[in-house]
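dude i think i finally got it to work??
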Amino acid sequence: MPFTRRDFLGTTALGAVGLSLEGQEKPTESKPTPGSPAHSIIISSGNGFNHIDEGYEILRQGGDTLDAALRVARGPEDDPNDDSVGLGGLPNEEGVVELDASCMHGPTRRAGSVGGVRNIKNVSLVAKAVMEHTGHVMLVGEGAERFAVAQGFLRENLLTERSRKQWLLWKETHSDWWGPGLSTPEWKKRALPSPRSDNFHERVQRLYEVADELGIEPDLRRTAVHKVLFPPTGTIHCSALNEKGELSGCTTTSGLAWKLPGRCGDSPVIGAGCYTDQDVGSAGATGSGEENLKVAGAHTIVENMRHGMSPFDAGMEALQRIVRNYNHDMDRLRFVDMTYYILRKDGAYAGVSLWTGYEPGKPHRIVVHDGTTKRNEKTVSMFEGASEEWPPDPAVRAK
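look at this
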C-alpha cells in the first residue's frame, strides 16, 4: 500500500487572522468583568467532546469545578483506543507508557502535578491527590507511582495490544529521537534519506511489511506507519467555571510517542500546560510541549488577561512568543504546532492555534459547553494550513 505524506500548505503573514470563525469573536471589553458569569461553562480540547456532558452535569448539580474538569479528562484516560493519554497511550522508546498530568483548583489556589508515572491509569486524579494529601506540588517517577498506590490507585499494564504492536513496529525499524533537534542550528543534518533517492519510499514499504508481520490489522497499518515516521503528541486539557465564578483546570497526557524515558513535556508543569488564577482565568495547552515550556504558555496567557487582554489576544501573544523563539523562520515553524484553550472569569473564552490543524481538512477544535449545548468550534489560527511533524520526511525537508 503506498504511503504519501500530506501536502504542506502555504502560510500567511503574522496577523492575517480571520475573526469570523464560530465562537471566536474578540470580546469588546478590555478587562475582566467583576462579579460572577451568567452561567457555568466548560471548555476542553477536541478529545473531550464525548465526555464534556458529564463534566457539565457536575457543575449543574453544584459540584466542584475541579471535579467537573477531571471528569472530562478521565474519559480519554479510560479509553484504550485513545493513544494520547492514559490506558493505551503510546509508550516511550523502551515500550513503557509514562504519563504526566497537572491540575489547579482556583477557589483554594492549590495545585498538584505528576510526571513520568508508570502503571497508573488516571494520573489526572493522582495530580489532585498530590494537591490534597501532600505538602508538595509535584511528584515524579517511581515516587509518584508509590504515592498513587498508597492512595488506593491500582497498578495495571497500560500498554494495550494495539499500542504494543505500534511500538514494536517503531522499534524494529530503528526509528529514534537521537540526533539534532529542531531548535539547534544543526537541525538540517538530521540523518534522513536524500530526496533524490528511493530510500525513503523503500523504508515506507518495509514498514508496511513489518506491520503485516507483527499482525497489525490492515485498516490500522497506515496509521501505525504514520505514527512511526512522525511521532505524535497527544493531550487533553479542560477548564471549568461555575456560576459563582469559581475556576479550575487540568491537563493530562501520555506525552510524545517513542520519547526518551523520563521525558516530561509541558503538561505536568504548572504554568506551562495548565494554569488557573481564581482572580483572572484558566488556560491550558496541547501540541509541541518543548516549545510551550520555553514560553510558559498557560501562565503567560493568564497574565496577559490580568493586564487587560481579551482571551483571544492573550493567546495570540503567547503564540507570537513561540514564533519569536525561531526568529520567524517558517522553514522550522512548519514543524511546530500549539493550541491554547482559554477561559476568563467572566465566561469569555477563546481557542487559538499556531496552525489550522495537523492535517488538511481536520482543524484544531475547542469543545465548549455552556449549559445549552455542547459544541465543537474551530480554533483561530495564526498561520493557515497544516503543520508538519518532526522529524521531516525528505520531500518536506527539501521545500
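The longest helix spans residues 199-213.
im so relieved honestly
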